[in-house]
Amino acid sequence: MSFAREVVPRALSLDIDALLDDRGVRVVVCCGSGGVGKTTTAAALALRAAERGRRVVVLTIDPARRLAQSLGLTELDNEPRPVAGVDGTGSLDAMMLDMKRTFDEFVEANADAERAATIIANPFYQSLSSSFAGTQEYMAMEKLGQLRNRSEAEDLWDLVVVDTPPSRSALDFLDAPRRLGSFLDGRFLRILAAPAKAGGRGLARMMSAGFGMFTGVLNRLLGAQVLTDIQIFVASVDTLFGGFRQRADETYQMLQAPDTRFVVIAAPERDALREASYFVDRLEADSMPLAGLVLNRVQQTTVPELASSAAAAAAERLEQDASGHSTTAALLRIHADRAATLDRQRRLADRFTSVHKTIEVATVPAMASDVVDLDGLRAVGTALADHV
Q1: For domain 3-110+134-172+255-303+357-386, is the CATH number 3.20.20.70?
Q2: Three-state SS string across 50-105, please?
């Protein structure tokens, strides 16, 4: 008997193959807190869909580059690369988000060469596009939108699988693009841009004495050059983007579309399941289409009838016996530890499903080794599908 099949006995089963075979599903978004196996799950889903006949592109945001290794590629970059060794009639391309390059491409596509060069060389833009809070999430959604548009225009893919950014909170993926868009479209930056729009004659001539004092404080806090860089940046992009917040809202609407499905990824641990619960609630509140939960790295045991406490007690008796039962005692100790983990994971999973009674769940057992190639990804995909 496998614990992976018994971890959530009262939960509805998530039919992974039905999800991947549904031609009405064009986007699958894998989301969840960091370290729960989103990248591996996204790659496994993408590979299984391709080997079942879909034309798939998978977008990862993982800085560890594990996806490239597991797909047999030497590297991934901001353009889709074909993956060799895919069985069946489908195809698989893979890419990894370069958030600065995505931002640069957006500027270059929406500005003439001179203005684009000015923006890209601006120090504030360089900081914004490389490390500003929320930029990675915003650019992930921008790239997703680009892939959807390109797929429809060129008939390249019929399924996009997205591995969301490794955020501190899973909700950052939904909230950060809007926050960044609101900041970039906000009145504060527009006010700062006013002197640059007027020809850069200086704050004192343009503003009231009160605002001049305010910007004087900003000069001391940020430095005059930083403030100037911001002014020049905002003046340069003011009519270029058509509204950062508007673009974020349009992408948000795309995520709510009926051809999108969210798959929440979690591990059977308290914090990961708490984060998954928050995410499920948020998706439901925002009317986003939720496919279900994937529970990764669940423990297995071949003798579930022997409780942890009983195994530990038997091991202690054998350890006190001088008749040469040390090997048996050691095995009982191992089983006791695994059975204790099994019990804890089952309680946590049951707590989650008791709150979210209608969510469909698929489970993946803890693997003996890391997933480093296509065979490993196939094993994960098989485990996802076979749990039903």
Answers
A1: no
A2: HHCCCEEEEEECCCCCHHHHHCCCCCCCCCCEECCCCCCCCEEEEEECCHHHHHHH
